[in-house]
Structures are given as C-alpha cells and as structure tokens.
Design goal:
CATH class: Mainly Alpha
Number of strands: 0
CATH architecture: Orthogonal Bundle
Bound molecules: phenylalanine
Radius of gyration: 21 Å
Strand content: under 5%
Shape: globular
C-alpha cells in the first residue's frame, strides 16, 4: 500500500471514536471493576487516574506520533525510523495476532448471551452451570466465535473510513448512553449505595505497591498499547489533527467508561450478594455467571441484561476490529496485498488460531501450559504479561535514546501545542522504562504463583 494513497480517518472525531473504540473493550467492563473493588476502591481509582494522564499518555502519544510520522503500520514504521530496530515492530505485530483469535472467542460468548437475553432465556442463563455447559459444548461456542469474527472481518473489509470509522461513530455513542443508563438503574437497587460508597471510598488498608502495579498492567491493556494498534491508527490520522488533545479525549473516554462500568457492576453485585463485593468474581465468571443471576433479581432484568450485553458486544467489536485492522494493515504493507484479500488471509488465520480456544474446556482439558493454564489463559498471559511489556520497554528505549524524544515532540507540535512536553520527555526516558520492568517481573511472578496477589 506504500504506493497507493493511504486511507485515512475523515477528521478528529472519526479518529478519536475509532481509537477510543479500540481502547474501550472487555478490559474496561469486567476487569477494571473487579480490580478496583479488590485494590482499595477509591485509592485504586486515584492511582489509575494519575497513571493514565502520565504514563498512559506518554506511551499513547508516542505510538500515535510514530504512526502518523511514518504513515506506516508497526513493522514498516520502525524500519523507516531506523532499520536496525524493525524487530520491535515485528514483536509488536505478534501481539494482535495472538489476541485477535481468543478475544473473538470471548466476543462470541457475549453475542450468545445477547441472543439468550433478547429471546427470553434469562432464567436459563442464570442457572449455575449454564456457562460451563455452554463453553464445554464445543460446536456451539465455535459457531458463535465464527459469527463474531466474520462480523469483525466484514467491517474491516469495508475499509478505514467506510468500515471502521462509520461503525465506531455509531456504536460508541450508543455504548455511552447504554452504560450511563444501566449504571443509574443499578444505583437505584436496594443496598446499592453501600456498594457505590465501597467503590469510590479510598481504603488505605488495601493499598500497596501491588495496587500501583495492578493499575499499571490494566492501563496498558485498556489503552491498547504496545501492540501496534495505535501506530496503525496514527498512520491513518490526518496531519492537521491535534495530537495532544486527541490523546486526552481517548484517555477520558477509556477511563470514563471503565469508571461507569464499575458503577454499574459493583453496586449491583453488592446489592445482590448483600454481603460483600467479594462476590464479584474475577474474569469470565463475573460477567457470564454472576451478572446473569443479578439481572434475574432485577425488575425488567431481561431488558437490562440484553442492553448490557449489547453494550459489551459493541465494546468488544470496536476492539476486535482494531486488532484485525492492525494485522491487515501489516499484511497489506508487507505482502503488497489489497485490503479484501488481506482480510481474507487474516480471517482464515484467526479462525484456525482461535479454534483451540473456542473448542474450550472439554476437548483440551488435559492440555495445560506451564502446568496450569488452558489455551485461552495461556495466550492471554503470553501476550499481555510477557510480550506487551517487552515491546513497551523497547519502544521507550528506542524513542528515548535512539530516535530521541525530539522527533516525537516535533510531530506533535506540527499540528498544535504540546503542553505535557517536559513530562513526556522525562517519562519516556527515565520513569516509564523502570515501571515497565517492574510490571513484567510482577506479572510473570504472580501468574506463575511465586507471588501472592
Ligand atoms: N483495550 C481493550 C480493552 O480494554 C482490549 C484490547 C486489547 C483491545 C488489545 C484491542 C487489543 O478491553
């Protein structure tokens, strides 16, 4: 595509909606609320916010600027800046290829739940083993996975402007309205206010170094950093769009939706269990097992449940299209393929790679990695806890010491002011690399069970 005119977002709104669409995803909805509940409520929120406007801001603006400066996706971008460092681009490109398949498996589960809730199946979905039975019934979960990834591919096939931008401009506003509506409804449930207070009141007893590291790990994933996505989207950004304010808006969106998701889930679960927010299980269990039971106790529960899963579906779709676009854009750039054939290649590859995760617990229950993980958990661990921090670290070192921060600053200033310039420079050279090494060590040790979290 280097010779063809590169596609682009029509303007700032399109860019911000698409990038925020990538950032706002399953991570905001199920992961953020339970982390906040677990790590001291208000104090976690505060730490997260501070990290978002310093650390998250630095990495995000750096990636978008690299993309816009070079006009290329991750691999080409690093090569153009300095040939010796194209391996960082390759490493970053591996991440979306690993995440896309299993993210789409979860996307398929969300689609199934939307279907069940909108066809009057709430009572069934609230049964204790509904979820385990569903993911164990391999053919069915493969079918939903296929549907989700096919929808993602169709949108990406339509292109940056007519596919991604258009869809994001429709889905993101609906997502905001639905999440605010559900949050308000959830706050009116009996006992919900106590849950809300728990969610926002700082609890210093639960504060530790781990709070900071957990917030940092979440930030990375939540802002879709260190996997070439923001480089790719930056390469579609027009030269006159203000970079600093775009990044601020994306951050605001991402953090705002995460906060609202907590408002929707923590009080509802609190009110449901009437005992303690610990009832909020981690991960998949919270969204697919606890929440259906909570909806069942609500008036208009099937309606609220359907609205909730529609919202989650939009969040997941706009994220999966950013993953797919990143891979497609690399395939276009490297293999000089046109968009549609490139999409078909990536669709086929993702389908194959996703099968082991979609076939779920039954077929593969004896295949474990590192002595304890199933396929889906393993892919999640390798990409989020290992490769992403390494890519982020290399990116910081590359920008801080090889390319020099000045190159990024010039790109940002070519389209407006750069108020957080000084902070950017200090963060990228000194603070971010140290923190990233800490996240890497922390997440690997805790995942492998050497550290109690
Ligand atoms: N940022 C998304 C979220 O919060 C997750 C994601 C990761 C999306 C990787 C795309 C790529 O859920």
């Amino acid at each position: 595509m280097e010779n063809e005119k590169r596609s682009s977002f029509t303007g700032k709104l399109g860019f911000v909606m698409a990038a925020a669409g990538s950032a706002v995803g399953l991570g905001n909805i199920w992961r953020f609320p339970y982390l906040a509940a677990q790590y001291g409520g208000g104090i976690f929120l505060l730490v997260y916010l501070i990290l978002a406007i310093t650390f998250g801001f630095t990495l995000m603006i750096a990636e978008i600027a690299i993309g816009r400066k070079t006009g290329l996706s991750a691999i080409g971008a690093f090569r153009k800046l300095d040939k010796r460092y194209s391996f960082i681009g390759y490493l970053g490109a591996v991440v979306p290829m690993i995440i896309l398949p299993y993210y789409s498996v979860i996307g398929g589960w969300v689609t199934k739940y939307l279907y069940v809730f909108s066809t009057g199946g709430m009572a069934q979905a609230a049964q204790p083993d509904f979820f385990t039975n569903f993911i164990g019934a391999s053919a069915e979960s493969v079918g939903w996975f296929f549907l989700f990834i096919a929808a993602t591919s169709l949108i990406v096939m339509c292109g940056v402007e007519k596919g991604i931008e258009k869809v994001s401009k429709i889905m993101m506003p609906i997502l905001i309205v639905l999440s605010i509506g559900i949050a308000i409804y959830s706050l009116t449930m009996p006992g919900a206010m106590a849950g809300f207070a728990y969610y926002i009141t700082p609890n210093f007893d639960n504060f530790s170094v781990k709070t900071v590291l957990a917030a940092m790990g979440q930030l990375f994933y939540s802002m879709s950093l260190a996997m070439g996505i923001m480089i790719t989207y930056g390469s579609y950004m027009k030269k006159d769009v203000n970079l600093e304010s775009s990044v601020s808006q994306i951050e605001f969106f991402d953090t705002g939706i995460a906060f609202i998701a907590g408002m929707m889930i923590v009080p509802a679960v609190f009110s449901f269990s009437a005992t303690h927010p610990e009832a909020a299980q981690k991960g998949a269990g919270l969204m697919f097992e606890t929440l259906p039971q909570v909806f069942k106790t609500m008036a208009f529960g099937d309606f609220i449940g359907a609205a909730f899963f529609l919202m989650v579906l939009f969040a997941a779709l706009t994220s999966s299209i950013s993953l797919m676009e990143t891979v497609v854009s690399i395939v276009c750039d490297k293999l000089k393929l046109k968009r549609i054939p490139a999409c078909l290649v990536v669709f086929g590859a993702a389908l194959l790679l996703g099968l082991p995760s979609a076939l779920g617990s039954n077929l593969w229950k004896d295949v474990v990695f590192l002595g304890k993980m199933d396929f889906l958990t393993f892919f999640d661990f390798i990409s989020n806890s290992v490769i992403m921090p390494i890519v982020a670290l290399l990116t910081c070192i590359f920008i801080g010491y090889v390319l020099k921060p000045k190159a990024i600053i010039e790109e940002v200033e070519s389209s407006g002011t750069f108020k957080r310039k000084k902070m950017f420079e200090i963060m990228i050279k000194y603070i971010a690399p140290v923190f990233i090494v800490l996240i890497l060590v922390f997440s690997v040790l805790s995942e492998l069970g050497y550290l109690q979290v």
